[in-house]
Amino acid sequence: MLFFVACAPTPNPTQDERNAYPVSTISPTVIVAEPTLTPSPPTVTATQPNLTPTPLAVTVTEPILTPFSPANVPDSWQVAGDGFIGEPYNNALLPSRYQVKNVWFTDLEDKRLSVIAGALISDPKSGLRLVQPWPGLVVIFMWDRNGNFLKDERGEYFTPIRVGAVQIVDAIGMKLYLVAEDGTAFVFDVATREYLSEAIPSQIIIPTMPTPTQTLTPGPTITALPTLNPYP
Question: What is the pTM of this model?
Fold first, then answer.
């Protein structure tokens, strides 16, 4: 037996029915996560200091040697050429192998020069006394303006012949006129450091040197012993 059920269609709601039951309009809540910000280091602009360089302090050493002049040399010195003839500053400072007669001093542009005149009296190596006549010579010494000895500028210059010690009697410019113990004269040019074979100018007076004498000291008196005769 079959049964048929009739279903009527559902009617569409009217506008009034829709308004009586409104549709929910609730919007969903959306949570937005804030981004994590890493702070950037601040930008630092370094300003270079404006440094003004300090000038270096330069100490200027004044020369300690007073230039030679007639106003500041001993009265015993005499003007000779471009310098002065006088006694050495200190004989104790000169080597004992020299016999010094006198010295000639002068100032150059940046140096001080002295020339000693005399003879070599002992052997520099052995120290033994030399036989006479001793070899005559001049020795040149030099210093800078601060008084420092210039070892490399030193030099010994022996007379061309061996006639004993020499001494400076005069000078013209840088030429020295020397005389030995026997009266032999020499010309030494300090500028070139050599002996010159030239005549002595007439204005140069070469003194007559005294002839050296040798004094003999008598020995002790010896009394003879009596003669013994062993045989009567």
Answer: 0.61
